[in-house]
Every structure is written in C-alpha cells, then in structure tokens.
UniProtKB/TrEMBL annotation:
Cofactor: FMN
Any one GO molecular-function label of the UniProt entry: FMN binding
Name the UniProt record assigns to this protein: Flavin reductase (DIM6/NTAB) family protein
InterPro entries: Flavin_Rdtase-like_dom, Split_barrel_FMN-bd
Domain Flavin reductase like intervals: 22-160
UniProt keywords, alphabetically: Flavoprotein, FMN
Family label: Belongs to the flavoredoxin family.
Upper lineage: Bacteria, Pseudomonadati, Campylobacterota, Epsilonproteobacteria, Campylobacterales
Length: 187
C-alpha cells in the first residue's frame, strides 16, 4: 500500500507517522516563568548533533492560537530542562499533557517532585534517571502551527550507577509507540 500524504488530513498524518516512527523519545520539558514551573511532554524530539550538542523539539500552539507555555517560556528565559519518562513517573507525564493556563503549574497541580541540581536552570523531575539542562539555540520557521526549537545541551544529570567509566549509559526510559508508552527490551 502506498499512502499519499497530500490526501491525508493532519490527524491521520499524525496517527500514521507516530505509529511508524517508533519508539519516539519523549522530552518531558520543565521551564519556568515568573516563579511558575511548567512541565509538558513532547515527542517531536530528537538529538541532531554532538558538537555542538543540539536537540530539536517541535512545539505547537494552544487551541486559542497562542504558543504553548513551554515554547513561550523557552523563548523568554532561554532555558529548558529536558527530563525522561520511566515506569515510576509515566502516570504523571500523561497528566502534564493537559492544557493549563499560563499561570498554573503542572508541577504543583499534579504534585510532581522536582529537585534543583543545576543552578541557573529549571529543576528536574526528581524521578527521572537523567535530565538535560539546555539553553535556547535557534528556531526554524516552517509552515503550519508548529515551531521547531533547537536547544543546546550544556549540562546533564545522570544517576551515578547508570553510567560507567567508559561512558556507557543504562537508563530505563520509556518511548512512545503510537498512543502508548512502551519499555525497551534487550534482544
Ligand atoms: C506523549 C505526548 C507527546 C506529545 N508531543 C508533543 C509535541 O511533540 N509537540 C507538541 O506541541 N505537543 C505535544 N504534546 C502535547 C503537549 O504535551 C500538550 O499540548 C501540553 O499541554 C503542552 O503544555 P504547555 O502549554 O505547558 O507547554 C504531546 C503530548 C503527549 C502526551
């Protein structure tokens, strides 16, 4: 079967693409504005370069046409802390996808524990095994309602026993397959 994207509407494009490009990493991004901590998951997310250490995340708009809070905060403060999802916090990340007002904090509303490990950056989700402390790098203009944002990774937290002396990393992050979170298994 050949699928012709010019005949497929946005929802069905999303369903087919997100069911095919699997597993998708999830950036659970913590940002801050005027003391309000914001946290939201994003799956249009991937590393794009090691030097400079860059990641890209595409963030859309709210139903009222205003930028999602994460995007507004990144553009304003130039900082973002990317956290990762595991089986201990997957219930919380789903809640963070609910649209809240700009002055409402997902961290407070859903009672998510955070910890400050890097001065000058938003705190990380305490239950994440690793977190990336990033600065704004660039945005790209594309057609449609979504903004690809490039972030530069400046510092990374990782639990001590999840990285060895050869820098081999062992984190148990969940990925997204279609509409489900899935764990990765060794073959
Ligand atoms: C698994 C998952 C992946 C998501 N990926 C994206 C994404 O890549 N881009 C996006 O704009 N929204 C994405 N969303 C929706 C946002 O998380 C949602 O709009 C959220 O309310 C944005 O919050 P904010 O306004 O606080 O930034 C995703 C939701 C879920 C559950």
């Amino acid at each position: 079967m050949i699928l012709d994207y010019k005949n497929i509407d946005d929802l069905n494009r999303y369903k087919i693409m997100s069911g095919t490009v699997i597993p998708r990493p999830i950036a659970w991004i913590v940002t801050e504005d005027e003391g309000v901590l914001n946290a939201a998951p994003f799956s249009y997310f991937i590393p794009i370069s090691s030097n400079p250490a860059l990641l890209i995340v595409s963030i859309g708009k709210k139903d009222d046409g205003s930028p999602k809070d994460s995007l507004a905060n990144i553009l304003k403060t130039k900082k973002a802390t990317i956290c990762f999802v595991n089986k201990d916090n997957v219930d919380k990340v789903q809640k963070c996808a609910m649209p809240l007002g700009k002055d409402e904090s997902e961290i407070e509303k859903f009672e998510i524990d955070v910890k400050n490990v890097m001065e000058g950056f938003p705190p990380m989700i305490a239950s994440s095994q690793s977190a990336m402390f990033c600065e704004y790098y660039d945005t790209y203009k594309i057609s449609g309602d979504i903004t690809p944002v490039v972030l530069e990774l400046k510092y990374q937290y990782i639990e001590d026993d999840r990285i060895n002396e050869r820098n081999h990393v062992n984190v148990e992050n969940l990925g997204r397959c279609g509409v489900s979170f899935k764990a990765l298994v060794d073959l």
